[in-house]
Design a protein that fits this description.
The protein has 170 residues and is an alpha+beta fold. It folds into two domains: 53 residues; 112 residues, Tetrahydropterin Synthase, Chain A. It is 54% helix and 18% strand. The chain has five helices and four strands. Strands 1, 2, 3 and 4 form a four-stranded antiparallel beta sheet that branches. Helix 3 crosses helix 5. The longest helix has 51 residues. The chain is elongated and about 100 Å long. Its main location: membrane. Controls the rotational direction of flagella during chemotaxis. It comes from Maccoyibacter intestinihominis.
């Protein structure tokens, strides 16, 4: 009789546990769905921000419509003094990639060589605001800042990237 009573007690506890688990699941599922929707909304907003922050990037423009202009002169630029207190400089040759289908290209692109000194001045001012260590560790950040400043200067995003074809730091 004791074994039978224990079996009935265990069966009752299993049923109660199953019922409570079902109630708990029914109560949690709607809030989990709402949380998933919130996460999807935030993720899509972040994705839009990452993709639309700087207009078109060179990766999104087909190679057939990119024209590259190499600045003719090598530039020697002094860096901002770093922690070591020594003078450092860079010798670099820069190039600009432009989207030939962009409206700004029609205004500035064909005569970009006449603006070379203004572009070199902008590159000089951006690079000289970095220390040797900052430039060495993250050249891409320097190129991105130059790109942003050139787009602001020309009031157009026809310039899709700025590159350094040769860089010598000391």
């Amino acid at each position: 009789m004791k074994k039978n009573l224990m079996s009935v007690l265990i069966l009752a506890l299993v049923l109660v546990n199953t019922i409570l688990t079902a109630i708990l699941a029914i109560g949690i599922i709607p809030s989990v769905k709402k949380s998933n929707q919130l996460v999807e909304t935030v993720a899509s907003a972040i994705n839009l921000e990452l993709n639309g922050a700087n207009g078109e990037s060179a990766a999104s423009v087909p190679m057939a419509q990119i024209e590259t202009y190499d600045l003719e002169n090598e530039m020697t630029i002094n860096f901002k003094k770093g922690e070591d207190g020594k003078d450092h400089y860079v010798v670099l040759k820069a190039s600009i990639s432009m989207d030939t289908k962009n409206k700004g290209y029609k205004s500035y692109g064909k005569e970009i060589s006449t603006k070379a000194s203004v572009i070199q001045n902008e590159i000089n001012s951006v690079v000289s605001s970095y220390t040797y260590e900052e430039f060495r560790d993250d050249q891409q950040a320097v190129q991105d800042e130059i790109l942003k400043n050139l787009r602001t200067m020309f009031d157009s995003d026809f310039i899709v990237s700025v590159g350094f074809s040769s860089v010598t730091c000391q």
